[in-house]
Amino acid sequence: MTTAVRPKPTSGLGNTDTEPCRLRAGRTSSWRSEADLEPKLSRSKGASSAEDDIPTVLPLQLVLVQGLDRLPVDEGAQEALRGKLRMLEADPGRVTTLLSELSAHLLSINSEENAICITFKVFEEIWKFNTYYQMGFLGQCMENLLLDQKFWINCLDRENTGIEIFIKEETMNLMYKGLLMQEGSFFASCSSNQIFDSSTSGSDLYLEKGDIALFEPPFLGSGWTVLSLSDGARGTKEKPPLEPVSPFYEKCLDVVLLVATGTCVAVEEYDGNGPDELSFEAGDRIIIVGLLVSCFQWFLGKRERTCDVGLVQTHLVKPTDSVCESTDIFLNTEDRTLVKLEQEKIKEETIALLRKTYQTDVGTIYQLGKQPVQMLDEELKHKIVSLVQDSCGKLSPSSDICISPDSKDLETDELWDLPHFTVCSENDGTSPDRHHALLSFLGSRDFQPEFNCLYSSYPEFLLTCFHGHADEEELVAYLSVARETAKKKRVLWAQSRICYLLGQMCASRSKFSQARVYYEEALTIPRDSFSDMSLQAAIYTNLMFIYLTQKNTEKYLALSERLAALLMGVPDLISGTEDPDVMKFVLKKAILSHNKPAEARSCFLLAKLHLKQGEPANAVPFVERLQMLVDKLPGECKGTHSHGYLLLGRLYSDQGLPHLAVSSARRASFHASATLSDCLCSVSLLLENAVQLYGSTTPAQVATFLIRAASLAPEGAECRLAHVHALNLSWLFHEHNLPARALAYMRAFLLGYSSASGMNQSEVTAALIWVAWLCIRSEQHRMALDVLNVVLSSMPEHCTTQQEGVVHNMRAIALRRTGDLRQAAESYRAAMEICEEFEDQHNWAVVLANFGFLCFRATAKHLGEEHLVQAVELFSELEEEEGHKMNFISVLLELGQHYISQGYCEKGKIYYEWALLIAIQSDQSESQLKAIRHLCHLYRQVCPNEAQCIIYSEHQLALVRRTGDRSTEAEILEWISQLYLGLGTERANRSALECTKQSLGIFIDLGKKRKEAHAWLQAGKIYHILRQMELVDLYVQVAQDVGLSTGDTLFVLEMLEAAGDIFFNSTVERDKAVCFYRDRALPIAMKAGSVRTQLRLCNKLAELLLQMRDYEDALEFAQTALDLSTMLGDHLNERVAFHRLATLYHCQGHFEMAEHHYLKALSLCPTPLQFDEEVLYYARVYQILGDITFYDLKDPYDAAGYYHLALAAAMDLGNKKSQLDLCTRLATIYHNFLVDRELSLFFYQRARGFAADLNVRRINLAPDQNLRIPSQIHS
Question: Assign residue 551 a region: left if phi > 0, alpha if psi is -120 to 50, beta otherwise?
Fold first, then answer.
């Protein structure tokens, strides 16, 4: 994957530098030019109110893109990105941390617009942020934050997929300008040629377009004040057109021959004023040594005729035809890297780290094959056979593998033996030639490697080489005598170096004036050549520091020009002793001259200096700026681009900036200049920061790095890397439940394997066993058996190994899944015998469990139970640190499930709880979740216990929150809410409300509108239960609004009906349901043609209006329900409709119609009757019919018939009370109306019998007894 940020090259803000090298007035003396060293403008903190409004918010627009054209992906993926932003919107802690690392402050997150709004408080923050933006880090950092591990795995098939960030650069530039104005005066370049009114003398100040000057904003109504950097002149103007420069610089003006190489010609004669200056005559050809930079006064030249080398003033030469412009920032023999990468050491360490991180125990530990075909292709099968044969023939049992010592423990660089000098006083009577050895050592004409110690920081050389002195005064006296001796003997080079040492000693004791005398003497000694450039640079650097300290501006500037010439002409001149403030003058002059190559080289040298001085944090901004400049400079410097990003990644990682470190590693790996070692270093950086960024030691992002490394390795030359590459990628896909893709990588590796690749027999065997396990996971069991049979055939016949048991166990798993249970049992038995032989309890427990699963498959439940119990016993005896917990937990859960299926719930519960305790003890979240799911199922469906279910569900919720799975968290909260509601107490109802609100917040964050609407409605329902009526309507209304926002008519209809159900199923404000059913839901259902919904709504309306005694409206909906039921052929609803119509007609006094519809309802009842409820229905309806015909229609004869049928049903039910009532009615009818004494007496006696049983004292047979109609029966 490539970076997802596309910065525009014309950014007005550009890049910025660090605190020490910021182009800011009055910050550090190292930036002073001729004008800078004059008194500065005073810093003002106020700005004119007339200035344009400065924005304070910078929106970052995030878009998910893919492909080389960086086009947006489909809307579904964009919605997923918005979902991630919603979660961050609710809990912005992670994005706040990231933006803090990027030097910005979070203001808000707008998930609907895919935007993050940020701001900056101080100038330093915006230039750092802009640096990261231009280097392409922003998008990659956002990818690390927003994209999960599954995304990275899937992205391997879709190149150039990532997040692209768009920024309104005009807004950022205005914010940049505003922050500059807050801080006071700032540097800017003129947008056009302009004249400023003079504030110092009579003549006006003229600046051309592109000139950089120091501007001070208006204060208390004054105009802008400007300070020219070329001559220190000041001027004022009302509102000058200007563009703030970056702390390095903003634009590069077109200047001819900025940096050149080749040969030039002297235009006039020059006689050098010192040994460092080159003397020449007019017309002499001078070869440019290193680089000639036009903005500097001096360059290093070599007189072609005499081969003398020295400093040449730039204005004294003119170019020839051989002079050519150069954009390279490195010299020919220069080390172009800031730090050295030991290629082989990096390779070895990274491969070892990868092996350790992605190691698998498949080749040594038995796999547990619980109960949940393809053939091996011939090419791979033959390859595996030949591979095993080659490895066996290559390594005989008696052969030894010789391991060479680790190269990192051997010192390859020779240590120079420095001479030792004894310091003696004059009274010691020693030889007058006591300084001979020192002068001989220091008198070399050319630079010697031993002098590195001499020119390094004080007092390394003095402490190492001089002995016998009591204090520094004796050493100074000794060196002073040596200086005089060298001067007398004309040993000029020794005299110069002794003067340098004396200057160092004086400077270390803050005797700067005395040190300056020694340094200046070292410069003026007339030496025969200009050959020791390191000495010259060391003297320049230390003398410049003293001039700067003593504010000797003229000499400081003159000497800095000479130092610049050396730095541009001599490779690897940085020793680490230089003062950064001195060297930054070179950088500043390059910036003011708009000289990009010179600026890049200055950044390179300053970065190298800070690294040598052990100040990596100070080196970071220079490396960042160098990387940005290298992008714009063609030439050989491109080859170091990847190396620079690697160095940045290491520096970021050391500073605790993991997002930037990983982003730098990615840029390093995927840059065109990347090498294999660069990619492997990037892998190390990623793994080093993985836990902090992703919470995992094995992030999926490493796959892209490994694929890139494999593509850079020479074909067939890096077998070990290819092996690790295949193993790691297959392991990653295996961990993400993609075994088929894992197998594909191992297959490709094995097909490309050759016998000369260097893998030993154990590595080959382990790789094949891993392939076999991947085949089993991919449901390619026949293929797995072929691989395992090849491995098994290659093992010694008379020498059993533990690995052989691994193969037998795996064969048995594959055989069981192919259905060959007999062969599987034999393989398990062989594996058991090997475990018993080696007393391998862990693997023995695993194979016993596997055999138990096999018995369950063969329906030998009792035998399987015995083996699982034995496995549990062995597991429980194992030591804590043996890493068997996962398998132990799986066996316990399987055994518990077996007991529950057999009806032993208490036993099953014990094993579930045992598994949970072990998972908690070993802090294995996934295992805890598995055990809790089993326990929740037990207490929810097998042995219902809401309180226990709540306890385990809440623990499950805590575990899921640790994983960050918000969707599952919301679902669990919903379930817990339902459990609390089931308890029925007010406290439980309030707990249910809290859970519902939490799930509602998550659904809002995830953008799940349907779930959100249901949650709003559920909250309204709970408020209704709690009788907080003022909130019910509010929550119900919001639920409807969210439902409408989905645009799904059927879903809106569902929500309206559910809203009505809240009131319909209550005893309070039931009339509100009519509004939802009749006025809202029913019209939509009719328009949508949802007949079932119409039927359901009509039934509810008919029942509700009946209870409200609105019989006319209820009759209309009941008739509609009957028509719809008849049309659908739904006999149950048709019967209900007839019954409800009969009830309504009865209530309205239409007794014949009521009788008719009751009889129609009865006719639709199934025959024969199957359930007691149906018999009870018969008894009640026939009794109602009897009452209607007897009391309302005054037909005792028909009434007696209905009562007889009701009595038969009551007798079938054995309901004595109903029989008492019916016998009383029948006795009354036969006694008073039908005048049948015999039947009257019969039913009277039966009624007396039921009365005695029910303790009813008196039976009234009066004919005018008014009996109440039984309550209506509703279906």
Answer: left
CA-CA distance, 808 to 126, in Å (whole number)?
A: 64
Amino acid at position 911, single letter: Y
Phi, psi of 56 (to 5 degrees): -120, 0
Contact between 342 and 677 (Cβ < 8 Å): no
Adjacency order of strands within the sheet including 285-288 = 309-313, 298-303, 285-288, 263-266, 317-319
Transcribe 103-151 into DSSP letters: T-EEEEEEGGGTEEEEE-SSHHHHHHHHHHHHTTHHHHHHHHHH--HHH
Q: Which residues contact 610 (CB under 8 A, 6 or more apart)?
A: 580, 616, 618, 619, 622
Distance, in Å, from the CA atom of 572 to the CA atom of 290, rounded to the nearest integer, reads 12
Structure tokens at 100: 């803090």
**Range scoring the smallest mean pLDDT among 549-558, 963-972, 1104-1113:** 549-558
Please give the structure tokens belonging to residue 1202. 């209905």
CB-based contact 204:197 (threshold 8 Å): yes
- C-beta separation of 782 from 374 below 8 A: yes
Q: Cβ(213)–Cβ(232) under 8 Å? A: no
Question: What span, in angstroms and rounded, lies between the C-alpha atoms of 78 and 1091?
Answer: 37
Measured CA to CA, the distance from residue 925 to residue 148 in angstroms comes to 19
Q: Is 453 exposed, middle or buried (0-12, 13-18, 19+ CB in 10 A)?
A: middle
Q: Name the nearest CA neighbour of 688 among 720, 718, 651, 721.
A: 651
How many CA atoms lie within 13 Å of 121's alpha carbon, on the beta-carbon side? 7
Supply the DSSP symbol for 1269.
Answer: P
Strand ranges, E, within 627-711: none
Pairing of strands 466-467, 421-422: parallel
- Number of separate helices (H) and strands (E) present in the chain: 51, 22
Angle at which helices 553-569 and 533-549 pack, to 10 degrees? 150
Question: Smallest Cα–Cα separation from 437: which of 475, 491, 502, 500?
Answer: 491
Is the distance from CB of 857 to CB of 371 less than 8 angstroms? yes
| Residue of 720 and 263 predicted with greater confidence | 263
CA triple 119-124-125, angle to 5 deg = 30
Q: 842, 831 in Cβ contact below 8 A?
A: no
Cross-strand pairs, 166: 61
Any idea which residue has 């009257």 for tokens?
1240
Residue whose token pair is 């004119």: 48
- Residue 175's φ and ψ, nearest 5 degrees, are -65, -40
Pairing of strands 58-66, 71-72: antiparallel
- 509 SS3 class: coil
**Domains, in order of start, for the chain:** 29-198 (no CATH), 259-325 (2.30.30.40), 1165-1275 (1.25.40)
Phi-psi group of 915: left, alpha or beta (phi > 0 → left; psi -120 to 50 → alpha; rest → beta): alpha
Which pLDDT score is estimated for 735?
81
pLDDT digits (tens, 9 = 90+) for 1132-1183: 999 999 999 999 999 999 999 999 999 999 999 887 776 778 889 989 999 9
* 1113 or 176, greater pLDDT: 1113
3-state secondary structure 1139-1174: HHHHHHHHHHCCHHHHHHHHHHHHHCCCCCCCCHHH
684-707 pLDDT, tens digit per residue, is: 888 888 888 887 777 888 888 888
Largest CA distance in the chain: 165
Task: Please give the backbone phi and psi of residue 63, each rounded to the nearest 5 degrees, phi first.
Answer: -135, 135
Let me know if 465 is exposed, middle or buried by CB neighbors in 10 A (0-12, 13-18, 19+): middle
Whether omega for the bond prior to residue 459 falls within 30 degrees of 0, making it cis, is yes
Omega of the bond leading into 217 within 30 degrees of 0 (cis): no
Query: Which of 619, 617, 616, 584 shows the shortest CA–CA distance to 602?
Result: 584
